Amino acid sequence: MSYAIPSVPSAGLRLHFNENTGGCSPAVLAALQSISATDTAFYPDYAPVTSAAERYFGVTDGWVQLTNGLDEGLHVVAQAAARGRANAAAVIVEPAFEMYAACADAAGLREIHIAPDEEFAFPLQKILDAATPEVRLINLTDPNNPTGLGIPKGAIETLAAARPDTLVLVDEAYAEFSGRTTMGPLQERYRNVLVGRTFAKAHGLAALRAGALVGHPDALAPLRRLLPPFSLNICAVRALEAAFGDRDYLDAYVSQATASRQLIYDFCGARGIRCWPSEANFVLLRLGPDAGAITAALAARGIHIRDKSSAPGCEGCVRITAGVIEHTRVCLAALEDTLASRRR
Ligand SMILES: Cc1ncc(COP(=O)(O)O)c(C=O)c1O
């Protein structure tokens, strides 16, 4: 399928939230337009869309709980981990997606932050050492945000087996780009492993809010008790059904992101800029002490990237969304200009 390249938005280029910068599938828009008056008046039936999600993920009945964005899923996981336990704690592996700390705080979990190792190597031993009996939740991201790096093979199983009474949350928000998942057989063996997914990224549904928790029904049961009965609205439900039906669109966008990542690597390689090989739809690159000023200069031109300088281990780094190839080209040309003008 050929990908209809969206033009560069006049309001600027949003390359700072890891969104789908090309927008959702046209099938999603058609589904939204076909919502009827009674559709909006009745509470939604989640059974068909949940079955469609189970088919999409390749898991059996009862293994998927849809949520109002993955953020809602992160909140209920933290609440379930904290529930009924004094002094419960959550492990957060830095640099980490900021919501883990926010959810731990909201749930009353003590936060144990694991500092990054050299070059962001996965700190398996440090996590094992930190995971005392009070630790009820270990937050992992695969591939990680903001580094884009994957968790090494076997590490999740090692953690799940070593701490069977601790929830191990594997946030796979970017799994469509990595093509890997922890779902399925490992979760059958280790019921403490939960996988989080979002439809905000590759599927382009960020504004509609749809995510999922995937795990053995026994693992999901305590979380389900914490969720409101009608978390997703009808727009999210119809959009998801349509998105699952348009695999070509998803594949075409993932190809765009893959090619964009390569453009960023090539840009960095030619200029001696350190960047990390990413399995997600963004790349982290080290611009040095001027990272903040460069981010601001690009923003003034309507190109928004994320200054990650204040994240642990990310001093001098920015994160750039790798989506539509044309958008990446525009961003890199502006970055080139900005770097040149700062050298003058
Ligand atoms: C690692 C990670 N998890 C979860 C989310 C949030 O997903 P959602 O928009 O579905 O709440 C994000 C969004 O940036 C993310 O980067």
Give a short overview.
It is built from 14 helices and 13 strands. With 344 residues, it is α/β, with parallel strands linked by helices. The structure holds pyridoxal-5'-phosphate.
Structure description:
The structure is a single chain. The N and C termini lie far apart (44 Å). The strands form three sheets. Strands 2-8-7-6-5-3-4 form a seven-stranded mixed beta sheet, with helices on both faces. It has a four-stranded antiparallel beta sheet with strand order 9-10-13-12. Strands 1-11 form a two-stranded parallel ribbon. 42% of the residues lie in helices and 16% in strands. The longest helix is centred in the C-terminal third of the chain and has 25 residues, at 247-271. The protein is α/β, with parallel strands linked by helices and 344 residues long. Bound molecules: pyridoxal-5'-phosphate (PLP). Residues 18, 69-71, 97, 141, 145, 171, 173, 198, 200, 206, 211 line the site of pyridoxal-5'-phosphate (PLP).
Keywords for this entry:
alpha/beta; 7-stranded mixed beta sheet; 4-stranded antiparallel beta sheet; 16% strand
